[in-house]
Amino acid sequence: MVKDTDTGVQAEKWIRWLARGISSLAAGFWLFVGIVAGISETEPWTVESVILAGLILCSAVGVLIAWFREGMGGGIVVACAIAHSTFAYIVSGHNKGFAMLITGGPLLLSGILFLISWWKSKALSISTNDA
């Protein structure tokens, strides 16, 4: 017989691994873009490129923290996603909404999934302690 808590634990694990996968891909993509842009040196460092490098570094650190501490890392990833989207809105010329969606969307989704996973694991641990 399967208990309700068993399905809750399974759902929490799926959410956690989905968040880890999406965030790792998004942060890895941005790290790749940043490293390639830094190596190619096609343009000099401007204020925009320094801000973008800082955002990339913060989001990568947030993802790394979220792998081990979902609550704190998820909050950092959500904050970085909002910062990425805001930066894309300010810098992009046309299609501001699309630029915001592409730059901050995956990080926002994964950050929210990390927070849901953290919340569900907290709720499951409280319910198992009550029994």
Brief description of this entry?
The chain has helices at residues 4-40, 47-68, 70-91, 96-130. The chain has 131 residues and is an all-alpha fold.
Describe this entry's structure for a reader.
The chain has one domain. It has 131 residues and is an all-alpha fold. It contains four helices and no strands. Helix 1 (4-40) packs antiparallel against helix 2 (47-68), helix 1 (4-40) runs antiparallel to helix 4 (96-130) and helix 3 runs antiparallel to helix 4. The protein has helices at residues 4-40, 47-68, 70-91, 96-130.
Give the helices and strands as they follow along the chain: HHHH
The oligomerization state is single chain
> How big a fraction of the residues is strand?
under 5%
The level of helicity is over 70%
Radius of gyration: 18 Å
Number of helices: 4
Number of strands: 0
Between the first and last Cα atoms, what is the distance in angstroms? 18 Å
In the predicted model, the low-confidence regions spanning at least 5 consecutive residues are none
Structural class: mainly alpha
Q: Which geometry do the CA atoms define?
A: elongated
Q: Let me know the average pLDDT.
A: 86
The main sheet comes to: none
Which helices and strands occur, and which strands form pairs?
Layout: H1 4-40, H2 47-68, H3 70-91, H4 96-130
Helix pairs in contact: 1-2, 1-4, 2-3, 3-4
Features:
single chain; mainly alpha; 89% helix
